[in-house]
Amino acid sequence: MTITGMIIRHTIMTTMTTVITITTSTAITITTVTDTTTITPMLMTTSESIPADTRGGMTEDEAAALYRLMTWLSPSFPVGAFSYSSGIEWAVEAGDIVDAASLRDWLAAMLAEGAGFCDGVLLAQTHRTVSQRDDAALREIAELGAAFVPSRERQLETTTQGRAFIEIARSAWNCEGLDAVIAACDGPIVYPVAVGVVSAAHGIPLAPSMHAFLHALVSNWISAGARLVPLGQTDSQRVLAALEPVVVTTARRALEASLDDIASATFRADLASLRHETQYTRLFRS
Hints:
- This protein has helices at about 60-70, 90-95, 100-115, 115-130, 135-145, 150-170, 180-185, 190-200, 205-230, 235-240, 245-255, 265-275, and strands spanning about 1-5, 10-15, 30-35, 35-40, 45.
- The protein is built from twelve helices and five strands.
- Helix 3 (about 100-115) packs parallel to helix 10 and helix 4 (about 115-130) runs antiparallel to helix 9.
- By secondary structure, it is mainly alpha-helical.
- The chain folds into two domains: about 1-45, no CATH class; about 60-255 and about 260-280, Urease accessory protein UreF.
- It is globular.
């Protein structure tokens, strides 16, 4: 069954009983009360099928890919992301982040010039090597990703989340070839590499995987900042909205970059992750 009509009410002033004949797929009822005639199109149903290209604009594979990305990169997916602040906790204590505006500026820099861009490049390169079945290149990327972290706490953060992501994917979302790809990494798997491995193994396109990953990354950073500053829910959403163009630009740059382009210029954020280790009171693990 498909719906071919819409419920719309029109009021027409008249002084006589009106008879209307309309040739259409939408039935019309006419009710006359004193001088007001109300025309109400009613819902009609038909057994005609809807063409495939009008069914929401997605194929079954695209719908499945979206479903998995929304699940894997949701805050409820149990990788323990809520336990980490990526140095934001120290930045708040040091007075670098004091409100929504300063949090937005800090995260914009982390996205475009720091961990966000670097993780995006690792994800993109991982996805491509898995798709090309290049195990040697995948092993090199996994090794680089594990080495390319500025502090012990950041390494704990990204490797712990990567391991959790892989374990849950294998348990609940396994697919043909995934175990072999994971084995090819031959060592610790950082979070962006884990997302690249699993999304490529499931045949999910790179671009939506990249945007979903960066959105999850930013959302977790904002969640940490909201608890630490603290910020209300509305301010948190304003920060997320303000960072949308930065996410889009960073995703595009990461998709076009090579491993040689990996670099970070967020020295203050790196120092924050180093100093967090000896912070007197801590809510987060990094």
